[in-house]
Amino acid sequence: xxxxxxxxxYTEKKDDTEVEEAxxxxxxxxxxxxxxxxxxxxxxxxxNHKKVYRVYKAxxxxxxxxxxKRLPARVKNPLVMPEEPxxxxxxxxxxxxxxxxxxxxxxxxxxxxxxxxxxxxISMSMPAKRVIKVLEKIIWLNGKPxxxxxxxxxxxxxxxxxxxxxxxxINIIYIQPGKPTQNGYIERxxxxxxxxxxxxxxxxxxxxxxELTEAWRKDYNEExxxxxxxxxxxxxxxxxxxxxxxxx
Length: 248
Hints:
Layout: H1 5-9, H2 17-26, H3 33-42, H4 49-58, E1 88-97, E2 103-111, E3 117-123, H5 128-142, E4 147-150, H6 154-157, H7 159-167, E5 171-174, H8 184-198, H9 206-222, H10 234-247
Parallel strand pairs: 1-4, 4-5
Antiparallel strand pairs: 1-2, 2-3
Helix pairs in contact: 8-9
């Protein structure tokens, strides 16, 4: 190995036990390095910051700084039920797990005017680009909304999503952080879906989730009466709204 015999047998004689115990006591409530060092100084410990930091690093107590996301000011918008379809769509995510423990996400999209479930996309991963593809598909089938109401999730505040909405002349209505009631229509839909499907079954794979979800969505849209829609189904109420618009 071409190393000196004394180097091979050398053992470090530093004993940092006292420093480690002091750091451990000072870090009881999760303070960072400089706060810990100030505490040790106040306690009369004479170690300089270089030694304390060396031991601190060796103990793996260092913390990664988490940048705080700065969102622009969100204005409270009234939750108004539109008088015609495709004025405002509400979108939101809901998540659950399959039997093996893997998490999946469901992107729910409803039309605020008639409460129709426009789409429910299920996947293990749902980045902003995937959300855009889903929206492009259902817009081609159902028409384009004027507004999209959503929370401040990373998929919805992503620049690619905002650019896509701007390019398609779709206005994004962001709710205020921590105010899910401002997106009450989709929150109520999420609750109905969770009680009827997610909390009711144990899924062996993602295909079972998609199959049961599609069956439930068909029943929700075409068979299930809604008190808020004069006991009509969402499909029936949408047809009623279209007739009213044509009669004007």
